[in-house]
Amino acid sequence: MRSTLLRFSFFFLMCSPFAWATPGNNPSNTHEYQLANGLKLIVRQDNRAPTVAHMVWYRAGSIDEVNGRTGVAHVLEHMMFKGTDKVKSGEFSRMVAAVGGRENAFTSRDYTAYFQQVEKSKLDEVMKLEADRMSNLNFDDAEFLKEIQVVMEERRLRTEDNPNGLLYESLMATAYMSSPYRYPVIGWMNDLENMQASDARDWYRSWYAPNNATVVITGDVDPQKILQAVEKYYGVASAKTLPVRKPQLEPIQKGIKRVQVKAPAENAQLAMAWKVPKLEPGKLDNPEPYALELLAAVLDGYDNARLNRALVKEQRVVNDVGVGYDMISRGPELFLINVTMAKGKTVEQAESSIRKALNEIAKNGILDSELKRIKVRILSDQIYKRDSIFGQAMEIGSTEMAGFSWRDIDVMLQKMETISPAQVQAVAKKYLVDDGLTIGVLDPQQRKSSEMKKGVQ
């Protein structure tokens, strides 16, 4: 777990508010179009290398799921590779590889995305493939029955046999009462066991439409030629009436919550999650989300950050520290701190040390030099990201899916630059309190002899 400051490119220098502009961060290089069927196209021209990243983002993730059908967004991601009337099952990946490209897909709480990265002359070929499965996915029940077993095994490996996964899953289900963020993206095992091919087809028919999709293309391209190609391939898809999205607002938490998870593990773990605000579209002036991002970096943004220095190096009460916060998202947000106990140390000791570090910031604040150091470090980290064709596409797409415009990114960066140590102190004091806190503890259990023998083999 780590801060998602890296979601944004913090190209700002202390000497000038506009010194962070780079070739990949020039609005004149980025073009936005809207097709007649509702599909949004964003093209960023970057001619430094003859490659192109092609991504299709659907604004449909686990946040759109309902009880009894959790995990269906991720299952459909798998099924999208199972063929159309023109492309047989398994052929999609083979055809991308045949033109020297790489491809994959991923599902999150907020969206599902598919991508290919190819040499620029091969863009039309992968665009044609992706546009085909936007409208013409066609898989049979037998393919579904095979693939759902793959997904269930993925859940076993990532969650049920993974103490970290079990703790995080229980923490989310405890912290959230009504928000679908309480569901695991991969779904509950019982829902996967009872899922039918018709559930995946219904999801596809409901959400996979051009008016619920954003195509992002970055790299060595001519925007006008890209628009013509996108209209040719994607423009034939028909818009749909999308399901009504219910707000499902999270009730105000009125006291500390705790959950304990017993699982085979070497060391105990502690996770602390506070309800905190996020940035809202159209309200970019709110300083609190920016201050929370910087607070995450103060605590865990570099090797000698406060929690790592105090808990790992000095007190040696934990082996590692992680801090996480998403400033932008479709649902409610948490400020997370996760630690793994050192041998002979207890979760009570770790919780006490974390509280002491947080109280120190709430009481005495942080140094101006400390905040400047963090910003400069972020700058150096992000130059490499902006140098990546794929990284630029990821930044644009994830921002759009959260309900913001790619144009907002630079505004966010400028707002971030203005945050003061006093504002960081203020959010620590206001939000990292017990009334909005959920605590998860992993109680390590000794592995059964059969599991130990299996591990040796």
TrEMBL record:
Cofactor(s) of this protein: Zn(2+)
UniProt GO molecular function: metal ion binding; metalloendopeptidase activity
Keyword Signal included in the entry's annotation: yes
Domain of life: Bacteria
Peptidase M16 N-terminal domain location: 43-186
Any Pfam family the entry gives: Peptidase_M16_C
InterPro entries xrefs: Metalloenz_LuxS/M16, MPP/UQCRC_Complex, Pept_M16_N, Pept_M16_Zn_BS, Peptidase_M16_C
Sequence ranges assigned to domain Peptidase M16 C-terminal in this UniProt record: 195-375
Record carries keyword Cell membrane: no
Signal peptide as annotated in the record: 1-21
GO annotation terms (biological process): proteolysis
Keyword field: Signal
PANTHER family membership: METALLOPROTEASE (PTHR11851), MITOCHONDRIAL-PROCESSING PEPTIDASE SUBUNIT ALPHA (PTHR11851:SF49)
Recorded family membership: Belongs to the peptidase M16 family.
Protein's UniProt name: Peptidase M16
Species for this entry: Polynucleobacter antarcticus
Biological classification of the source: Bacteria, Pseudomonadati, Pseudomonadota, Betaproteobacteria, Burkholderiales
